[in-house]
Write a structure and sequence with these properties.
heterodimer; A: 306 residues; alpha/beta; TIM Barrel; 8-stranded parallel beta sheet; 4-stranded antiparallel beta sheet; 8 helices; 12 strands; globular; B: 333 residues; 2 domains; 13 helices; 41% helix
């Protein structure tokens, strides 16, 4: 099987926050099947339809969208590039919203990316830097900048209809074109419909099997080992507790079957797609609206650190 | 350095000006907006907006008569094309009537308004989450004349950005209304209370788990419980100490009064008081608090003395000492 999108299926990407996660799939050989990769990473396999089980992973997403402390080091990027190339896969660098501190860390990585390499942008400042200093790189708009309502508590679709997502909006697409972006990412929103995955003429990638609702700068779990007033403040230190703990969040008194499974990891809150949401996504895949599926490889509630 | 105060009714202008406000910001849901779009999404909030279109003209007249400035808020994170067209017309009307600036959160709207060449200031809302120098350059390229920094930035971070872009103005939060998450990338809705309210204040039960699948140790559980208890306390401070006030009516909650010397020294054009939907008394007392500190700085008082004065204004210095009520706790440290 070829690695990239074909008429039969979209391109499959595996998102990894931890560079060492690549080691878990190394022995699967070139273009490993997506279910094999997810099994190695303990990602629940029910997010994949049977017909997609053998689709090959063609791309690694390296980095984290939610925290600048998780931006990979240059050595990690190089190792991931070598691993990906060795397995016949492309590599995309994922970047979060950043301060100038984070931007400096990203700046160390950008010169190491080859011409045409993708950089996922979740901060307009990162886009500004990429397009002015590294025009040979290809910016992809991240899901944080593709605005939509993704509140897992919504009781009905009526709440989301008032706020259609930005990615389909002509003025926003014009803005992206002005800044050299023709590819964007999105989450599957609660109450998703297949037509909501229409982003033409933009190329669309979709994350699964989780959506993110909100991220903070302050990090609750990241404050665990901080003392007194050093907790819960801007730019507080941390021990990357997000790599060691996750938190299930339930609302007492609410019907469990009416709520999306919700969890926090690090500074952000996520929801797991319902079967209805997944069905809408897979229908949109059939309809060829989606160019790429991005599977959460090691940033989920079942990942087992080595 | 100016004081920028929130407005929700035209009648508040004189009182807030008398308390010491230099600039005002307000929002409005145009008369036909609700019928057309079924939401009040011009500025993210159903409450705290001026009541009708004509209020905007009246507000501008009163503000002009006092020699002050008025900005109009359009700071939803995103709009539909039809909403953008409607906002463009509103921006044109506001400009024609002598409005001073638009506060914009959606880069599409910023680009659209800038493209019209209106003679009006374009302020990037805190919602736009400009957190680095390149971000400031991006918004400058789109036409911004001022950037309102988001919450949860350090003074050093803001200073660095301000120095990098001396051609534009900057504004920073100084009082009221904390937000737990990054509001610029919050994709939730502040639901009605019976549905859970704001997601950051919803009544979640949290169950911690280790990523390696092992059970939590006793020490771990205790540390996590302690962290959660401190987090609950921090939330209380973050939300205005239960939205309470001192005997004199001064609000508790997020505060940067003792950092005002630092903000002034980095060239901040204005400090922002949050809370459009607060009652007038709270707004007045908020402006008064900031004015009392700013006047002392303006009179050339020693900055440490002014900071000490600021920390004693509520007569409860312990609230300041631990820094959890602070926008800029590094000053306390």
């Amino acid at each position: 099987m070829k690695n990239c999108a074909t008429d039969e299926y979209p391109e499959i990407a595996l998102a990894l926050t931890r560079p060492e996660s690549l080691e878990r799939v190394r022995d699967l050989g070139p273009a490993p099947a997506v279910t094999d990769c997810l099994r190695r990473l303990n990602c629940p396999p029910d997010s994949i339809e049977d017909r997609a089980a053998k689709w090959p992973v063609g791309r690694i997403y390296l980095g984290n969208e939610f925290c600048e402390r998780l931006i990979p080091k240059a050595a990690d990027l190089q190792q991931a590039q070598e691993e990906a190339t060795g397995q016949g896969m492309e590599l995309t660098l994922v970047t979060p919203m950043v301060t100038d501190f984070g931007l400096e860390r990203i700046e160390k990585l950008l010169p190491r990316l080859g011409e045409g390499s993708e950089v996922v942008i979740n901060d307009w400042g990162v886009l500004q830097r990429v397009r002015t200093a590294y025009p040979a790189l290809k910016p992809v708009l991240g899901r944080m900048l593709n605005k939509m309502i993704k509140d897992p508590r919504l009781p009905s679709a009526d709440w989301t209809r008032l706020h259609p997502h930005t990615g389909r909006q002509s003025h926003f697409q014009g803005l992206l074109a002005r800044f050299g972006i023709d590819h964007l990412e999105m989450d599957v929103p609660p109450f998703a419909r297949p037509d909501q995955f229409e982003a033409a003429p933009m190329t669309l990638s979709v994350h699964l099997p989780y959506g993110y609702t909100v991220k903070g700068r302050m990090c609750r779990i990241g404050s665990l080992h901080q003392k007194g007033a050093d907790k819960f403040r801007a730019a507080h230190a941390c021990r990357k507790e997000c790599l060691h703990y996750w938190v299930e969040a339930k609302r007492p008194g609410r019907r469990p079957d009416a709520e999306l499974m919700t969890f926090q990891r690090g500074n952000s809150q996520f929801y797991r797609h319902s079967s209805e949401m997944a069905a809408a996504l897979w229908r949109a895949v059939e309809q060829k609206r989606i160019k790429r599926l991005i599977f959460s490889g090691d940033w989920h509630e079942n990942y087992r650190a080595a | 350095m100016k004081i920028t105060a929130p407005l929700s009714r035209v009648e508040e202008i004189e009182a807030l000006a008398a308390a010491g406000a230099d600039e005002f910001y307000c929002s409005i849901v145009p008369d036909d907006w609700l019928a057309r779009f079924g939401s009040s999404a011009t500025s993210r909030r159903p409450f705290g907006n001026l009541a009708q279109d004509s209020d905007l003209e009246r507000a501008l007249e009163r503000v002009r008569a006092l020699g002050k400035h008025l900005s109009l808020v359009m700071n939803a994170q995103h709009y539909t094309p039809e909403q953008l067209d409607s906002l463009l017309r509103l921006a044109e009307r506001f400009t024609r009537h002598g409005g001073d600036a638009l506060i914009i959160g959606d880069p599409s709207l910023l680009a659209l308004v800038a493209g019209e060449g209106f003679d009006i200031g374009l302020h990037v809302s805190s919602i736009a989450a400009c957190r680095n120098r390149q971000g400031a350059a991006f918004y400058r390229e789109l036409g911004a004349t001022r950037i309102i920094f988001p919450r949860d930035m350090t003074l050093a971070e803001m200073r660095r950005i301000a120095r990098s872009a001396p051609e534009i103005q900057f504004e920073a939060f100084v009082l009221n209304d904390g937000c737990v998450f990054e509001e610029g990338v919050c994709h939730s809705i502040h639901l009605p209370g019976q549905l859970g309210g704001a997601i950051c204040m919803d009544n979640y039960d949290y169950t911690y788990r280790r990523c390696d699948g092992a059970a939590l140790g006793e020490d771990e559980q205790m540390a996590l419980q302690d962290n959660d208890a401190r987090y609950a306390r921090w939330l209380w401070y973050r939300f205005g100490c239960g939205f309470s006030v001192t005997e004199e009516g001064y609000p508790y909650g997020p505060c940067g009064l003792c950092a005002m010397a630092a903000l002034r020294d980095m060239g901040m054009t204005s400090v922002k008081i949050a809370g459009r939907d607060a009652p007038l008394a709270r707004k007045e007392k908020s402006v008064e608090l900031v004015r009392r500190v700013l006047d002392r700085l303006g009179a050339g008082q020693d900055r440490d003395e002014v900071a000490a004065f600021a920390r004693n204004l509520r007569r409860e210095p312990d609230l300041c000492r631990h820094g959890q009520m602070c926008y800029y706790p590094e000053v306390v440290k």
